[in-house]
Amino acid sequence: MSDAFIVGADMIRFGRHPDRTPFQLAAEAALLALDDAGITIREVEAIYAGSTFNSASMVAQRVLQLIGQTGAMCVNVSNACAAGATAVRQAILAVKSGEYDVVLAVGAEKNPRGLMGGPLTEGPPPEGLFGSVAPPSIFAEAGMVHASRYGTTIEQFAKVAVKNHHHATMNPKAAYRTETPLEDVLASEMIAWPLTKLMCSPNVDGAAAVVVVSERKARELGLARAVRVRGSVLVSDPYEARAPEMFDPNSVTRLAVGKAYEQAGLGPEDLDMVELHDCFATAELLHYENLGLCGEGEAGRLIDSGDTALGGRLPVNVSGGLLAKGHPIGATGVANIVEVVHHLRGEAGARQVEGARIGLTHVLGFASVAAAGVHVLEKA
What we know:
Blueprint: E1 4-11, H1 22-37, E2 46-50, H2 59-67, E3 73-77, H3 83-96, E4 102-109, H4 135-150, H5 154-168, H6 182-187, E5 190-192, E6 195-196, E7 206-214, H7 215-221, E8 227-236, H8 251-264, E9 273-275, H9 281-290, H10 299-305, H11 321-324, H12 329-344, E10 358-366, E11 370-379
């Protein structure tokens, strides 16, 4: 079985693109990734496209329509916020199977404005009418459970937003590149206690793409800028005895990362950087513990220490994260991988994590049952 390598990775600037279709955004990202790899669409044997709101419109085929119809196999996947990471994982599996040497994975989305719906399948329960199953409420509740157990404060949650917005000022492709001091974060509109508006990820448009190749093809292209895939895992919620409408962001992430560390033969102590799913500020602190970056109940102290900021022991979300880079649902998982690839190559500019050799990406998508995707990447 061949190893899989990422040889091309890029994204468009996230934000609002009112005059462009999601297919145009996806096509631009695809061309950027192909140019980065030094190949053309003619060499691509298969395309996987991840999207959620636009998934029914055959994104992969429409990308080919725009940049060159070649007869390549096309597959479209929808997996909530994990859609893009799912597309990348399918590309990796296609290469590792030996059937393909060159596969393109794209994530793209034109997000609707306003509050995203909650994980409802059979109509809302009464409390749902008041927003208790909307994403901000779910992650607010998860944060308050952590606070009740470990004494985590609203200031500690807010520091996540301060850190990630600062990182975004160094990322030319982030949607929001403005410093947000702690007092501004705390004073912004309260959405769901303890989450203020600046502690919630903005719904934006965006697209990102990567080119995944076999070891044979990577060597042909040259390994100088290639990134090896050490681990690629996608799981759904394990069974837990809880009400079906309740959502737990913790167990599914722990299951995924445990399998990813085992597959990679590495542990959290080996990581140089992490891009995780900070859909809300509370989520980042929860995932510090879920990914094994610190011990149980230590996430608040970890953000206080500065270790997860650029220049710290283990920088997290130096792209700006979902909180500031933006969260175009289907593109997010691919964009996280693009960010890590750029750092492992030493090409991240002002926000470069010095000496980065191993990075981890994490996404979490949910409806009634959650999906978590984890990728472990290593400089070749």
